[in-house]
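Researcher: Next entry in the queue.
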Amino acid sequence: MTDTHLGFSPTPLPKILITPSKVRAARAALNWTQRELMEAAGVGHGSIVHYETGARSMQRASLRAIQKAFEDAGVKFTSTGIEWFDGPTRVQAAAVLERPTPPLAM
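Model: Structure for this entry, 106 residues:
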């Protein structure tokens, strides 16, 4: 579909497949601390802590930044968990024990 006002078709944003348990699983897969994720994604440390514990939701832009940081490091988010490469071996992990998450902040 083309936006006639703009003269081009906008690129759809990637689907956000991140959940708090997947963030924890991805950090564990890469052996990253919350501070290392903060530096890689450019997201505040408190935001990561509160999101991982389910205490708060996170802005879409922050979730996208976290997803990109992990993807750049080789982690792929799936509908059921994460995938990453450990040397030459592809490893899959299911994210489990999902805590209820507050609604996504707009």
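Model: The CA atoms of residues 29 and 86 lie 9 Å apart.
Researcher: Noted, moving on.
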